[in-house]
Known about the structure:
Structural class: mainly alpha
Number of domains: 1
Strand content: under 5%
Number of helices: 14
Shape: globular
Largest sheet: none
Number of strands: 0
Oligomer: single chain
Radius of gyration: 19 Å
Helix content: over 70%
Amino acid sequence: MKTGTHIGILCGIGAGALWGLVFLAPELTRDFTPLQLAVGRYLAFGAVSAALVAPRIRALAATLTRRDWLSLVWLALAGNTLYYVLLASAVQTGGIAMTSLVIGFLPVAVTIIGSRDRDAVPLRRLTPSLLLCAAGAICIGWQALAAPTGEFRTQLIGLLCAIGALASWTAYAVGNSRCLARLGHVSVHDWNLLTGLVTGAQAVALIPFTLLLEPIRHDPAAWLRFAGVSMAVAVFASILGNALWNRMSRLLPLTLVGQMILFETLFALIYGFIWEQRWPHALEVAAFVLVVSSVLSCIAAHRRHAQLPG
């Protein structure tokens, strides 16, 4: 296996470790709505991105076409604004475990789409990995679905929000990988900052809606916690996590990119266990084993494919 592949896998693990923090944010700021959480996070992401990209924004803008800017608008919506609203809604109504179950199917969706790429590993060779992934995801959320703690309607809303987040981020993962492959002259770091700039503009546009739907009623301490969580998620997940993900997306084929999303689910569960101050149950341990086996199986399939002649 090439050195670039190993680096890409490490970047994917790092991105998953940072992105897993996103699942904790709605629990830490339950006084705020999912829309407010999205606006807070992406205002911070946009501000940090603007500060970092400001010295070379003119030079970057000159290299982008109208199509590239439209792609940024779409990717910012699908991968950030819409996705996070749906994810936060799912966590707050259905819980971390159920949300992790649904998001855990991201690798299946992305890998199936990626298998259609030219020179991609055939889907039949990825079937064992996909089955292991699906089994792991089912184990992750089985307890939450088998013994729901809330009303059925609330659980159903959470499930629908999680499915919406799954669809939104699948579209982002595929679209972002395609854009990075097409725009070789733009660095992965700059592409992330441009995405943050556009996402921040979307957050500004959402402020009137948040004020209309949710009047300001929180005390200063709650707002201080909200600001701290928003900034932490923006820096660690959006700036650093996205940078690692974009680097990985340039180094790995889409079929392997899909498998790397599993690490977000794994780390989200670890952080959830720490937050709930408990050890994992038997099904959750089984999920860890299945998910790791899925990634290793996918890597092995790519190694064998790379060794085939011509």
